[in-house]
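Researcher: Structure prediction, please.
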Amino acid sequence: MARVKICRKPDCHNTIPYVQDNPYCEIHKAMYRPKPEFKPKSSYERKRQQHEYNANKRDKEANEFYHNKTWKHLSAGLKQQAMFTCECCGRTSTTKGYLVVDHIIPRKIDKRKQLDKDNLWVICKRCHWYKGMLEDDVYTDGLFLENIDTSKSWGKGEVRQWILDSIKRHDERNQYEEQNEQQKNENSFVWR
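Model: Predicted structure follows.
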């Protein structure tokens, strides 16, 4: 007997072949919306984009800092100490470039803390993106960054909670949109 699985539609118990790409049975197959195929960039393309970013977008002082030996050794050591796990969401990865050593108080705000281990943490790219959004909200308000009082900045716990709350809101919004899409598809289904 071949392996089977149950149709993904709630309350439908029809079986389908396990190897079938469409997770819905013959009755509900119109509900299937395949995700676009993910095509990872080649290593050449990633390197070219990183070189372009370093040369044209990142300021020269930051570029020198992030490419010096001290920073590279410190960040590699912190990733290893964190056991290649995001300190925010808990995801683990040894894939190169997935984890980022981030400054809790941004380097552009307080350069005195740029090598302070208490101001650094290991986070994944997803959490780093949300942290960037937080920095835009907190630190840039059309003002000069040099005038910001760093004693009023957020600590690691507050930043972590803000990021996790943002991810949760984003995931809930996506889930709500998917449910609405499914309801539209169910309502448009015609019995024949």
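Model: Confidence is low (pLDDT under 50) at residues 143-147.
Researcher: Thanks, that helps.
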